[in-house]
Specification:
By secondary structure, the chain is mainly alpha-helical.
């Protein structure tokens, strides 16, 4: 179990990378990022600017 910390850190880094890349996809913005409790309003305002 000495590798558990490394595996967890790699998983967090990989997940963050995937979310960073998926941010530019409209379905990810609408279905995932806009539904976040605290920072979801940021993507709603950002999506409204794109539609103009």
């Amino acid at each position: 179990m000495r590798w558990a910390g490394s595996a967890a850190l790699f998983g967090v880094a990989a997940g963050s990378g995937v979310l960073f890349i998926a941010e530019c996809l409209p379905p990810a913005k609408r279905d995932l990022f806009c539904k976040l409790p605290v920072v979801g309003n940021y993507w709603k305002a950002y999506e409204a600017k794109d539609e103009e």
